[in-house]
Protein: GNAT family N-acetyltransferase
Amino acid sequence: MVLAIRDVREHDLDAVLALNNAAGRSILALDSARLRYFYEHAEYFRVAEVDGQLAGFLIALRDGGQYDSPNYRWFGEHYPQFMYIDRIVIANNYHRHGLGRVLYCDVHSYAEVRVPLLTCEVLLEPRDDVVVLFHGTYGFQEVGQQRMGKDGPQVSLLALDLPSYAYVRETWLDKGGLPDVPWLTERSMPSPTAAGARASAGRQHP
Structure:
């Protein structure tokens, strides 16, 4: 088995959308517009490939964005700096292969040199004890609960302290930035203007 973790590419989006919306009740459904928002704005959006096949993905956003998720906004109201895991999805064929932990380790490594806190939420309605246990064993702790909208599900808001960040900030971030090495490279963000132009051009043709 050959595993690769890489930044998402535009040609992956249809497969990512299908994978997300086949995941069941524990993952909120996506439409193409919301997925496009993630593609254009998420600082961390990586896929897991197994033998060249899309096996999973994880999307995370930095603080200070315009994302309209109530959980993202909750963390923004309580913490000045954080990385927010919006979702992680693993294809059914690759469950119990450890891909979830691989992606969490990767986003942890990415986040700990940029922010002091990694955050996410888990649904309590319906409650999935496997998901709750997964986050607990990884070190996340509950820092709050809320209901997602008037009739939405109750969620547990989780945070993981990243103690390495203080050292990285004092050693590099406060003195010009991270070293210029490939494993610290940030995702190359697509241009929303260019993406919009491509979409408009496509709509002009029957």
User: Anything to note?
Assistant: The helical segments are 13-21, 32-41, 70-78, 99-111, 129-138, 164-171, 192-203. Residues 3-183 form a domain with the Aminopeptidase fold (CATH 3.40.630.30). The longest strand covers residues 53-62.
